[in-house]
Amino acid sequence: MEEHFPITALLPMKEKSERVPEKNMRLFDGEPLCCRIMETLEKSRFISRIIVNTDSPQIATTASRFSKIVIHERPAYLIGNQVPMNDIIAYDIEQESGGVSTHYLQTHATNPLLSSETIDRAVSAYFANLHRYDALFSVTRLQTRLYFSDGKPVNHDPKILLNTQDLPLLYEENSCIYLFSGKTIRNSGRRIGNNPILFPIPKLEAIDIDTEDDFRLAEAVFVAMRKEKIFL
To answer: Which value, to the nearest 10 degrees, does the dihedral of the CA atoms of residues 37, 39, 45, 51 take?
Structure first.
């Protein structure tokens, strides 16, 4: 049986967002959107701490009611839409002084359908394969006809209309789960490392809120799944 080390979750949340104003604090089925992912992370069997990196006093106050939360106030030089996420991750790890956890899981408040069970499966896969891989990130399977912007096909020949289930399998990075060590970030400068595991997760759990339509879709699916007791 693989050995599991404590995992620290990294949850960056900024105050302002462009396409969905203040989406992290917007009510999602009656509570701030950011609460959903924090509830999920606290249910994980492997996550010992959750670092919330934010420039929002309101988000910090809301997050502080959760027992595993540690707040990192985002410095001015890391505020803005052009700041790379890898820089924010590196900052949070640096604040740890090399300390409590050497393994990290990064996710977003905009993934409200992600389940703790899927997180725990990903953590188990990560630790079981550390001898071969240096990171893990979640993906969504794609088997559909794709095109470049110039109209050229990506993964099929329009003259040969294969059934979609027979097309080459592609994977979309869905931004739900990233697992890596502090060493991986230092060596590669990126959360997916140099040799990552691609970890498929259920399509509905991978819904990411980036637009108003995404928000409405995620909330409708969440309410339906709760009604069917798919998760509570």
So the answer is: 60
Token pair belonging to 111? 């993934």
Contact 11, 56 (CB under 8 A): no
Buried b (16+ CB within 10 A) or exposed e, 119-143: bbebbeebbeebeebbbbbbbbebe
Running DSSP on this structure, what letter comes out for residue 31?
E
Domain ranges of the chain: 7-227
pLDDT tens, position by position, 142-159 = 888 888 999 998 888 888
pTM confidence score: 0.91
Contacts 24+ apart (CB under 8 A), 72-75: 74/12, 74/14
Q: Which amino acid, 51?
A: I
| 25-46 tens-digit pLDDT | 999 999 999 999 999 999 999 9
Instruction: Say if residue 155 is exposed, middle or buried (CB neighbours under 10 Å; 0-12, 13-18, 19+).
Output: middle
CATH assignment, 7-227: 3.90.550.10
What is the enclosing helix (H) or strand (E) of 119? helix 116-128
165 DSSP assignment: G
